[in-house]
């Protein structure tokens, strides 16, 4: 059973609704130089194809702001209408007013209340961004970060803790200040003329348990849609585990309307990894379905043959390659479940639980591979790895063609979120974006 969702206002970001009962939205952020319009448009395209439903870009200087409308045009020229969010720090009030084309092209503005200014100038510059958003009919995200929190607020609360001998830890005070900053900034945005259905908020920190505490409090205090994510999740397994541990708890409680898994890529790594991770997180909790899942045996002393590992890898690659076509032409194919198992212990059971499952022989077992379709034994395969792979792929093809109805109107290719793996961009797209 899915958890009851925290009730929030619905905010439209381009074509995508965040909150208001809409499915939890996946988003990501480019790491290109935004002033390089071709590279940034290319990465936006790749992230969108990987399943990112919103893409944020840095808008940090005049050269970047001047290129935003070109980036948007390049994407639309290849049929990619993914909403683009502008990430502003320090000088957003200047860039949005100096470059009205940038303000018009973006689908949402991110405001960090901790570095939009100080004292009276803070409110003035914050109000300037809100006015631009109001005039252009755009939503904003009020994005509070633990690393750039309003220090005036923190020092005031620290002093209050000392003067009143409250005995609170510095972490508790910082967490409280983050919620205060988000709530007060939301009130200021409303005073500036924005509506509730134009405001998304976030309070990002880098420690999972702090994130859980903060968002539980936000859910008690506000009905604005909530953007979830650790501000710096980290690299590799650490980033994946910490993100899943914190966001999994909150999503399991019905808290969160859009997510980003902020992974640190390895040098030269693939930015899409954070999109795949977010899709897998939501799919693992039953909140969204993005692509067919493959259950595969981890292997043990009973599985000295590597055939099941090779077959699991090849079928995942095959799904990756076929998913754009399947998703375009077939209804519901992302619900497909496959199993590739390595011995008789769990092989038949897991295979029966999948739409299509194959149980390969373990050490000492008869070299035959029973295949199950929708819980019933369908056939037995034998032969070399290449023969098994070809036969299993044909079974998958046949199943997709017979079990999933053809769409009356195929989806446009650029709008298809493929499986959570690498995506090949067409030559036409490369030509337009380059």
Structure commentary:
The protein has 434 residues and is an alpha/beta fold. The C terminus is likely disordered. It has an eight-stranded parallel sheet with strand order 8-7-6-5-4-3-11-9. A five-stranded mixed sheet has the order 13-14-15-16-17, with helices on both faces. It has a two-stranded antiparallel sheet with strand order 1-2. The longest helix has 23 residues. 45% of the residues lie in helices and 16% in strands. Strand 13, helix 11 and strand 14 form a beta-alpha-beta unit.
- The side-by-side strand order for the widest beta sheet comes to 8-7-6-5-4-3-11-9
What is the C-alpha radius of gyration, as a whole number of Å?
Answer: 24 Å
Please give the count of helices.
Answer: 14
Structural class: alpha/beta
Task: Give the overall average pLDDT.
Answer: 92
Strand content: 15-25%
Query: What percent of residues adopt helix (DSSP H or I)?
Result: 40-55%
> What does the main sheet amount to?
8 strands, parallel
Q: Please report the distance between the alpha carbons of the first and last residues.
A: 46 Å
Task: Give the overall shape.
Answer: globular
Total beta strand runs = 17
Low-confidence stretches: 414-434
List the helices and strands and how they pair.
Blueprint: E1 11-13, E2 16-18, E3 25-29, H1 37-50, E4 54-58, H2 62-77, E5 84-88, H3 92-98, H4 100-105, E6 108-111, H5 119-136, E7 140-145, H6 151-163, H7 170-191, E8 199-204, H8 208-221, E9 227-228, E10 234-235, H9 236-252, E11 258-259, E12 263-264, H10 273-284, E13 293-296, H11 307-329, E14 337-341, H12 347-353, E15 356-359, E16 369-373, E17 376-381, H13 385-403, H14 427-433
Parallel strand pairs: 3-4, 3-11, 4-5, 5-6, 6-7, 7-8, 9-11, 10-12, 13-14, 14-15
Antiparallel strand pairs: 1-2, 15-16, 16-17
